[in-house]
């Protein structure tokens, strides 16, 4: 079914939402709900379809071409299509690298527009934000290096190699700039604060994972910058906000993952011995067998880091 469905997608236009959205969902789940052997073949089928990849680029570009954002609480058919497109391209990025699959058509995206979609999120629905954050995380995991993706500059519309760093730090973090890093970090922090009020687990998991990947990316590129970002005092306020969740709030998976991140980068001004002791105390009092899987995994990583 991958052949006819992917070919059908390639013949559509981005406004054909009723047909495209379920079709892209089918392609997405075909990648994820299959055996490794079949997965490799599925990736090869999709990456060999030039019309499909061209269509996906047009779909993603609709994210910032839309003049009037939808209401935050609702998910329109156009927004649902954007979600499917971002998630599918993010998956193709990771699997193309995993299997070293040949690419017949690249997808060009403006990095500034992608970052602005998160930084200036306006009234974007939660699921659309989750999808874009997932894509950004996939790009960071690949260090902006992929035979499928080409990063372009909105001013020159040329390849990433033409982006001119303005400082030694920018050169080290290329194609990101320091101002973009700090804007992105603050935006992710603000999203987590907002999530604490909305109790949206899906978005909190995506944001924390992206923050982890961003700091790891910075650490590889420039350790001083990574440690500087990880030790920002605003992180302390973020933890206080997340911990304002009542009893045993230290065992929230997003709190554990953030504290693990700060421990890894020795941010003693963010997490103290008191917080570490509190987590250990709550862990000894909890019924570990009844903890959710996400919490158990996060607690395991935290203890290993300690």
Describe the fold and architecture.
- There is one protein chain.
- The chain has 306 residues and is mainly alpha-helical.
- It has 2 domains: 1-66 and 75-154; 166-305.
- The chain contains 15 helices and 2 strands.
- It has helices at 2-10, 17-32, 36-47, 50-65, 77-99, 111-119, 126-141, 168-173, 178-198, 201-221, 223-230, 234-242, 253-264, 273-285, 293-305, and strands at 107-110, 149-152.
- A two-stranded parallel sheet has the order 1-2.
- The protein is globular.
- The N and C termini lie far apart (48 Å).
- This is MEI1 protein.
- It comes from Chloroceryle aenea.
Note the beta-strand portion. under 5%
Low-pLDDT windows of residues: 155-163
Shape: globular
Task: Supply the number of structural domains.
Answer: 2
Strand order of the largest sheet: 1-2
* Residues in helices, as a percent range: 55-70%
Protein name: MEI1 protein
InterPro entries: Immune_Signaling-Apoptosis_Reg
Quick description:
By secondary structure, this protein is mainly alpha-helical. Helices cover 67% and strands 3% of the residues.
Output the keywords.
single chain; mainly alpha; 2 domains; two-stranded parallel sheet; Immune_Signaling-Apoptosis_Reg; MEI1 protein
Task: Outline the fold blueprint.
Blueprint: H1 2-10, H2 17-32, H3 36-47, H4 50-65, H5 77-99, E1 107-110, H6 111-119, H7 126-141, E2 149-152, H8 168-173, H9 178-198, H10 201-221, H11 223-230, H12 234-242, H13 253-264, H14 273-285, H15 293-305
Parallel strand pairs: 1-2
Helix pairs in contact: 1-2, 1-4, 2-3, 2-5, 3-5, 4-5, 5-7, 6-7, 6-9, 7-10, 9-10, 9-12, 10-11, 10-13, 13-15
Protein name: MEI1 protein
InterPro entries: Immune_Signaling-Apoptosis_Reg
């Amino acid at each position: 079914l991958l052949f006819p469905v992917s070919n059908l997608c390639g013949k559509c236009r981005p406004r054909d939402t009723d047909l495209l959205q379920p079709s892209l969902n089918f392609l997405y789940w075909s990648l994820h709900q299959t055996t490794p052997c079949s997965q490799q073949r599925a990736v090869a089928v999709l990456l060999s379809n030039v019309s499909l990849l061209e269509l996906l680029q047009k779909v993603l570009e609709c994210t910032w071409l839309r003049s009037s954002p939808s209401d935050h609480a609702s998910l329109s058919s156009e927004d649902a299509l954007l979600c499917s497109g971002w998630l599918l391209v993010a998956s193709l990025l990771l699997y193309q690298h995993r299997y070293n699959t040949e690419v017949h058509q690249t997808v060009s995206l403006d990095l500034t527009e992608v970052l602005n979609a998160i930084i200036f999120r306006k009234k974007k629905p939660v699921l659309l934000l989750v999808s874009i954050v997932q894509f950004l995380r996939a790009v960071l995991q690949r260090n902006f290096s992929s035979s499928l993706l080409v990063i372009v500059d909105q001013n020159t519309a040329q390849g990433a190699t033409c982006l001119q760093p303005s400082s030694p730090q920018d050169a080290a973090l290329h194609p990101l700039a320091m101002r973009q890093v700090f804007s992105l970090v603050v935006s992710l922090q603000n999203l987590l604060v907002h999530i604490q009020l909305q109790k949206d687990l899906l978005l909190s998991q995506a944001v924390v994972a992206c923050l982890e990947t961003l700091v790891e990316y910075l650490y590889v590129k420039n350790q001083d910058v990574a440690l500087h970002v990880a030790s920002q005092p605003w992180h302390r306020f973020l933890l206080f906000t997340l911990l304002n969740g009542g009893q045993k709030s230290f065992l929230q998976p997003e709190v554990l993952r953030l504290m693990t991140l700060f421990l890894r980068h020795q941010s003693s001004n963010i997490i103290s011995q008191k917080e570490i002791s509190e987590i250990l105390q709550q862990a000894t009092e909890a019924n570990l067998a009844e903890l959710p899987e996400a919490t158990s995994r996060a607690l395991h990583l935290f203890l290993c880091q300690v």
